[in-house]
Write a structure and sequence with these properties.
Length: 543
């Protein structure tokens, strides 16, 4: 099976959207300005056009979730306005979780939008791109852990003493190294939400009233049903401080009574159940439909999602269902989750055990890495020289100020230089990390070898699907798997594959306990008959 560069059809034109983010860990608005300056400089150099409404940002919001207003707004606009490019500083601006990063990347590529990273190189080939993303994430992992461990020491101390830890909450104000205090401007909003909801007013109506009155959430956004639902479940409002594993009763100033909180909680439970006429029971949160995002209907091409049903005895059943089935636009029947995932799992585990496939993908990644990082030493030297130049200019400004030369132009020039200095330091740190790692072919091979035998690990399973698999199409009696790296597809008959799985399990048991399994079971009988049909003397295998 030969490697094939996957075709990506980018939207025509040179319109580019931009997305900027800095995390709550950094707490630096200036990093947004740095990212914007870098994006505009890049756009000018390459002839891209950034429209007036084509820039999106999230300030002081962690990259470990994709439920960010700026990011979601960008994805919505990209789907409807179809720009040719999205300019970002690095992939971790979209998400620090590799699976979410792949998901957002895939959403944009389906809309014809090509992601352009300014601070790191990524290939256009979709499969290779996912693999390189995974390697970058792996390289940065230790760096992130070290950084977090340093930050966490201080934050754990704050948590143990119920001090402000950077988490902003509606109804409270917080300052570094101090306890939370009640915010007289926003605390009444929180109290009103609890009172109205406990009295039976719907969340939609509460949100509409607050928005019409000009009130906004802690991040300056309009209130939504989801944001109010989260507020109603936050035990901080009854005085409970919580951060990580630390929970301190009385650590927060209390805004609502325990009785009112419990009344709202009962109303939430009642509304969440949907009454006796609920059309469909919700799938429990701990049920993982791990093929979601990759599974599609073979008949109409629509995505598949997870649903549940209950038998008369009360036993739950789970299925992959075509989104168009509910709309009566597709006749594809619901496919049992256990059957589909058993077949897919067996196939993917056998695929991962193929050393030739792992070697091929590792070699592609290594060749790309060398191509893009062959002159990294020269580039790092260039960054360091630029930093020295900027620092020298700043020193000159400091001398000028000491001599009494200070005006608005001087102040703006110094601010620009400080921004350049911070950005250069970030680039240097990133390059030094990559230079320290110095990826070798054996490193990449070991990276992929680590997937073998670890399919139960949720992260490994996600990596395998995102890096290797393009789509899984489900039909009534079979599934077809397509890949990123190979121009082939694999069709798996449900009946034949399940029989193969049963035979495989039988052989494993036979090796482990031959006396017990060698003559018992339907699998043994079928295998025996198969051998007889092929003219094999069964006495060699079944004494």
């Amino acid at each position: 099976m030969a490697n094939k560069i996957r075709h990506f059809e980018r939207n025509p034109g040179n319109v580019a959207f931009c997305y900027y983010r800095y995390s709550s860990e950094a707490q630096r608005d200036v990093s947004i300005d740095q990212q914007r300056e870098a994006a505009h400089a890049f756009a000018k150099e390459h002839g891209y056009i950034i429209p007036k409404d084509g820039e999106f940002e999230d300030r002081a919001i962690t990259g470990t979730t994709i439920e960010r207003p700026g990011l979601q707004h960008m994805l919505y606009e990209a789907k409807h306005k179809r720009p040719a490019y999205l300019l970002i500083w690095k992939m971790d601006r979209l998400s620090r979780e590799i699976h979410d990063s792949f998901f957002v990347d895939g959403q944009l590529r389906e809309c014809g939008v090509q992601i352009v990273t300014l601070g790191e190189m990524l290939p256009e080939d979709e499969g290779l791109r996912f693999a390189i993303q995974g390697l970058y994430a792996s390289m940065a992992h230790n760096f992130i852990l070290n950084h977090r461990s340093n930050v966490m020491r201080g934050m754990n101390y704050n948590a143990e003493n119920a001090l402000y830890n950077g988490r902003r909450l509606l109804g409270y104000t917080g300052e570094k190294d101090k306890k939370y205090e009640i915010d007289p401007a926003t605390a009444p909003i929180v109290q009103k939400v609890f009172r109205d909801y406990a009295a039976g007013k719907p969340l939609k109506k509460i949100a509409d009233e607050l928005n019409e009155s000009g009130y906004r959430s802690i991040r300056g956004n309009k209130f939504t049903i989801n944001s109010l639902a989260s507020l109603l479940e936050n035990r901080a409002y009854i005085g409970e401080y919580k951060w990580g594993s630390h929970t301190i009763a009385g650590g927060m100033p209390q805004l609502v009574s325990v009785e009112l909180f419990e009344e709202a909680k009962k109303m939430r439970a009642k509304n969440r159940c949907g009454g006796m006429g609920a059309a469909r029971k919700l799938v429990p949160a701990d049920v993982d439909f791990w093929l979601s995002g990759h599974a599609y209907c073979g008949k109409c091409g629509a995505p598949l999602h997870g649903i549940s049903g209950t038998s008369k005895s009360g036993k739950p059943y789970y299925y992959y269902s075509c989104l168009n089935r509910k709309k009566h636009l597709c006749s594809m029947s619901n496919q049992p989750k256990d059957k589909i995932e058993t077949i897919a799992r067996y196939f993917f585990e056998r695929m991962l055990e193929d050393p030739a496939l792992r070697m091929m993908i590792a070699k592609l990644c290594f060749d790309y890495y060398n191509q893009k990082n062959g002159d990294k030493g020269a580039y790092l030297d260039s960054l360091r020289n630029n930093l020295k130049v900027v620092e020298k200019k700043l020193d000159n400004f400091v001398k000028a100020i000491s001599e009494g030369i200070f005006n608005e132009s001087t102040q703006q020039a110094m601010r620009d230089l400080e921004n350049q200095k911070a950005l250069l330091k970030e680039q240097i740190a990133s390059e030094e990390l990559q230079e320290k790692c110095d990826i070798k072919l054996e490193t990449i091979i070991k990276y992929f070898d680590g997937f073998v035998g670890n399919f139960d690990d949720e992260d490994v399973r996600r990596y395998v699907l995102d890096i290797f698999v393009d789509k899984v199409y489900l039909y009534e009696d079979s599934m077809i798997v397509t890949f990123h790296f190979i121009d082939d597809k694999q069709e798996l008959s449900y009946d034949e594959t399940l029989e193969m799985i049963e035979n495989h399990a039988y052989l494993v048991d036979s090796v482990n306990d031959p006396e017990t399994h060698v003559e018992s079971g339907s699998a043994a009988e079928r295998m025996k008959n198969s051998l007889l049909e092929q003219g094999v003397d069964d006495s060699d295998f079944f004494p």
